[in-house]
TrEMBL record, chain A:
SUPFAM superfamilies: Actin-like ATPase domain, Heat shock protein 70kD (HSP70), C-terminal subdomain, Heat shock protein 70kD (HSP70), peptide-binding domain. Keywords: ATP-binding, Chaperone, Nucleotide-binding. GO terms for molecular function: ATP binding; ATP hydrolysis activity; ATP-dependent protein folding chaperone; unfolded protein binding. This is Chaperone protein HscA homolog. The keyword Transferase does not apply. Transmembrane segments: none annotated. InterPro entries: ATPase_NBD, Heat_shock_70_CS, HscA_NBD, HSP70_C_sf, HSP70_peptide-bd_sf, Hsp_70_fam, ISC_FeS_clus_asmbl_HscA. Chaperone involved in the maturation of iron-sulfur cluster-containing proteins. Has a low intrinsic ATPase activity which is markedly stimulated by HscB. One of its GO terms (biological process) is iron-sulfur cluster assembly. It comes from Catenovulum agarivorans DS-2.
From TrEMBL, chain B:
GO terms for biological process: [2Fe-2S] cluster assembly; protein complex oligomerization; protein folding. Residues 115-168 form a coiled coil. Interacts with HscA and stimulates its ATPase activity. This is Co-chaperone protein HscB homolog. PROSITE patterns: DNAJ_2. It comes from the Bacteria. Residues 2-74 form the J domain. GO terms for molecular function: ATPase activator activity; protein-folding chaperone binding. Keywords: Chaperone, Coiled coil. Co-chaperone involved in the maturation of iron-sulfur cluster-containing proteins. Seems to help targeting proteins to be folded toward HscA. GO terms for cellular component: iron-sulfur cluster transfer complex.
Length: 621, 172
């Protein structure tokens, strides 16, 4: 028998017990789910063998339909069929209506609040729509894998701001998914190509999807990923290529400005198919039946098509140039270019990208699936199936975080492209005698004026001890975690009093709303809430018994004899409580042990810093 | 642990940035919150704090200016939020000339050569100041070192401005 069982946090003692985790590409147009089975990452298909799930949800009074069948009704029931909800994540009504004036949806709410859509099944926020898409993917995965999903890595565009990331995480929570990590889409693609283990150097990920364009410059070194810069255009994609053909059809066919909805749909479908055919064919001939039953013949050559989309491709290359500049690099410094997104199938796109970076881009993995595949590989590692992996993803914050100061100016507190996690503290003072509360407005963006930046949240600090004006110094700490999400804490310095913070996200759901929605969904499922809570606490308790137990065996020397005995006794109590069914007692005991072991845990961390540095001096030589 | 201790360095201005990067990455490999994705909440929080501290330490030690400021702070001289500035008249005169030169450059139709020449001059000045800071810190002349750091910050500001001009010039 082993004298000591040493297991890292999050890894089980039983090496063969695999945990099931998935990678999810929650896309604007399409979504996919993938998992690693027998060492191979694969996307999971529905009963009809389709791996793609259109990111479309239709709400009727009777049911919620997701995917292809919802898409079929997009034209006939456009008001209740939500397409590309991802564009509305973390966005205000005012914003959405201004950017997309032609949408058929009935947006409700105040102009400066999160955009929500009135449907036959009630008012839906984009978070709930995304949650329905995630639920569909979760069900698909659980059916295919025959087991419960333990965690998911969900991808987001690298430039997503805090509000958009928070919305994505909230959507996962509503769908009952445990998020292991929000992963940047380009990083996921690079992982899929195995660039993490084999190479060193800078790579570019060129992602031209249905409705968005992303360019990211990553740096790889000894398995460490670093996002050097990101850029792109959130309103440029394959749909714009289709639109270019639509405009050409309208112009060359001399069609009237306003068309029937049938004609619009027919032209749109034709344009898409012509675009796809032109990937192989030199010329495509096609006929359109007009509303008066007359027919019009068209012929579009590859050369003509390429000149139609040339301005669009050029826009992507300008964004590439800017991203390279931000990273302090030239096009020839890039070692590999990864292609992502269905629109990179267009030969003209491939050619221009190859030309710009002076090398053939990587395209062996299906560009629609590559992000989900990379995400599933990362999920497999994070859930603890690959204990010997030493990959680390270092990300940067895509947009600067700032605070509103006098006169509507923005003072930056965390610069964009700073490696995360990161924390910065800022001090505030009161300007009135006896003032006990103050408001802090957090914005994100690069511009000088608050009105040109995105509003993230308003924080109200309360419970400041009453003092003379200027005497109270409130230290507010802004913490951005590895997912790029912001949290805020505040403390009055002279008294050490923790001020409470009320967060009002500018374009998201408040905590109370999420809890309400979760409650409602549990009620709908008629689950036994108490049984579930007890089960969750027991899992948490077992995790603590395992990890703290091992830590105590390993690092007894960091504790006094008495403190060691106390913790062991506390753990025994916890183990005994797990035999019973008192959920509250288990919870309290966990919290009790958690508090008591804080110093021990901190000491272990410092100790392992020393250990992490030992032996590396040998590496360096 | 102070920032130097985190990376197992003696507190000193002269520091091999490559070794720093290598150690930084080893530490992130051990403490990045991803390594704790399945751990309990308090372990996650602890890892988050550690990784944050490591990032902060790395960013501070990587740049010569902030490294010098940090060493001064360890010596009890915090100049990071100060409002006092350089009082050396000849240095200030030169800064004013530099400012005028920036304006002249921004008025040029093809500023590229002028920008490169100016950049080289500033780089030389930066190197000189960094060498001076190193010497002063070594001999524990903190006030003198602080003065040199203040000057270095002026130079850094000019460099940023110049980069901005270069950006603007290449966008036309």
């Amino acid at each position: 028998m082993a004298l000591l069982q040493i297991s890292e946090p999050g890894q089980t003692d039983a090496p063969h017990e695999r945990r099931i985790a998935v990678g999810i590409d929650l896309g604007t147009t399409n979504s996919l789910v993938a998992t690693v089975r027998s060492g191979e990452a694969k996307t999971l298909a529905d009963e009809a063998g389709r791996t793609i799930l259109p990111s479309v949800v239709r709400y009727t009074p009777e049911q919620i339909v997701v995917g292809y069948s919802a898409l079929e009704n997009a034209a006939s029931d456009s008001e209740n069929t939500i397409i590309s909800a991802k564009r509305f994540m973390g966005r205000s009504v005012e914003d959405v209506v201004k950017t997309y004036p032609e949408l058929p949806y009935n947006f409700v709410g105040e102009p400066k609040e999160l955009a929500r859509i009135a449907t036959l099944a009630g008012v839906k926020s984009p978070i709930e729509v995304s949650a329905d898409i995630l639920s569909a993917l979760k069900n698909r995965a659980e059916q295919a894998l025959g087991d419960e999903i333990q965690g998911a890595v969900i991808t987001v565009p690298a430039y997503f701001d805090d509000a958009q990331r928070q919305c994505t995480k909230d959507a996962a929570r509503l769908a009952g998914l445990k998020v292991l990590r929000l992963l940047n889409e380009p990083t996921a693609a690079a992982i899929a190509y195995g660039l993490d283990s084999k190479q060193e150097g800078q790579i570019a990920v060129y992602d031209l999807g249905g409705g968005t364009f992303d360019i990211s410059i990553l740096k790889l070194e000894k398995g460490v990923f670093e996002v050097l810069s990101t850029g792109g255009d959130s309103a440029l994609g394959g749909d714009d290529f289709d639109q270019a053909i639509i405009d050409w059809i309208k112009a060359s066919g001399k069609l009237p400005g306003t068309l029937s909805s049938r004609m619009r749909r027919v032209i749109k479908e034709t344009a898409k198919s012509v675009k796809e055919q032109l990937s192989d064919a030199e010329t495509v001939n096609f006929t359109l039946a007009l509303d008066d039953n007359s027919e019009l013949d068209f012929s579009l050559s590859k050369t003509e098509f390429e000149s139609l989309v040339e301005p669009l491709i050029k826009r992507t290359l300008i964004a590439c140039r800017r991203a390279l500049k931000d990273a302090g690099l030239k096009a020839q410094d890039i070692k590999d270019v990864v292609l992502v997104g269905g629109s990179t199938r267009v030969p003209a796109v491939r050619a221009r990208v190859a030309d710009y970076f002076s090398k053939q881009p990587l395209s062996s993995i299906d560009p629609d699936q590559v992000v989900a595949i990379g995400a599933s590989q990362q999920a497999d590692i994070l859930v603890g199936n690959k204990p010997d992996s030493d990959m680390v993803l270092l990300d940067v914050i895509p947009l600067s975080l700032g605070l509103e100061t006098m006169g509507g100016l923005c003072e930056k507190i965390i610069q964009r492209n700073t490696t995360i996690p990161v924390a910065k503290a800022q001090e505030f003072t009161t300007f009135k005698d006896g003032q006990t509360a103050m408001a802090v407005h957090v914005v994100q963006g690069e511009r000088e004026l608050v009105k040109d930046c995105r509003s993230l949240a308003k924080f109200e600090l309360r419970g400041i001890p009453p003092m003379a004006a200027g005497a109270a110094h409130v230290r507010v700490t802004f913490q951005v975690d590895a997912d790029g999400l912001l949290s805020v804490t505040a403390m009055e310095k002279s008294t050490g009093i923790q001020s409470s913070i009320q967060v009002k996200p500018s374009y998201g759901l408040e905590e109370s709303e999420i809890l309400q929605m979760l409650q409602a969904s549990v009620e709908n499922a008629k689950e036994d809430v108490n049984a579930r809570k007890l089960a969750e606490q027991i899992v948490e308790a077992k995790r603590m018994l395992e990890s703290l137990g091992n830590a105590l065996k390993q690092d007894k020397h960091l504790l006094s004899e008495q403190a060691y005995e106390d913790l062991v006794a506390d753990l025994n109590t916890l183990a005994r409580l797990c035999e019973g069914d008192d959920e509250q007692a288990i919870k309290e005991q966990i919290e009790h042990i958690d508090n008591k072991s804080q110093d021990f845990a901190a000491a272990r961390m410092d100790d392992s810093i020393r250990k992490a540095l030992q032996g590396q001096q040998v590496d360096e030589i | 642990m102070n920032f130097f201790e985190i990376f197992d360095f003696e507190p000193a201005f002269d520091l091999d940035v490559n070794t720093l990067s290598a150690r930084y990455k080893n530490l992130q490999r051990a403490f990045h919150p991803d390594q704790y994705a399945s751990a309990n909440e308090s372990q996650k929080l602890l890892a988050l704090r550690k990784a944050t501290e490591i990032n902060d330490a790395y960013a501070t030690l990587k740049s010569a200016t902030s490294r010098a400021e940090y060493l001064l702070k360890l010596a009890g001289l915090d100049i990071s939020h100060e409002t006092t500035t350089v009082k050396d008249p000849s240095f200030l005169m030169q800064q004013m000339e530099y400012r005028e030169r920036l304006e002249d450059i921004s008025a040029l139709s093809d500023p590229y050569d002028a920008i490169v020449a100016f950049e080289e001059e500033l780089e030389a000045e930066q190197a000189e100041l960094e060498a001076l800071i190193g010497r002063e810190l070594k001999s524990a002349h903190y006030e003198q070192a602080a003065n040199a750091v203040r000057k270095l910050k002026f130079v850094n500001k000019l460099q940023t401005e110049l980069e901005r001009l270069e950006d603007e010039a290449s966008e036309i």
